[in-house]
Amino acid sequence: MTEKSSIDPFTDNIIERIDPKVRASLTPNQLSAIVTAIRDPNTKKYPIDVRGVLPLFFARYFFVFLVGRDQRVLWGRTEELRRHRASWIGLILFALFISVPFLLVLLLFLYLLKLIWGWDIFPAFHIWEIFV
Question: What stretches of the chain show up as alpha helix (H) in DSSP?
Fold first, then answer.
């Protein structure tokens, strides 16, 4: 497969990126297995499959528009687990962002009550000693 094959441009591009010495050492069976793995014949076609390239002056952008049933069964479960974990992390962070300021205000209020009523809970310690 040293010359350009007529498999498809994507597969040809990947095969061409293999080092020429390594590519020359591949047997036809190995090369066929690589092409089969790249093309993945088990993938199903979508009812609407539009792919294209937008060539602009400064760059080329590609787009893919697929419509059809989601066939990623394994990935769906993995994504669901990730979302579940992320929701717990988000919930914990939200609770921290709510509770930490509330706790600081509560401690400040208790300290002000201590000052107003003259309680000396720690006789040799005052809060301003931390900042000075």
Answer: 9-16, 20-25, 28-39, 73-117, 128-131
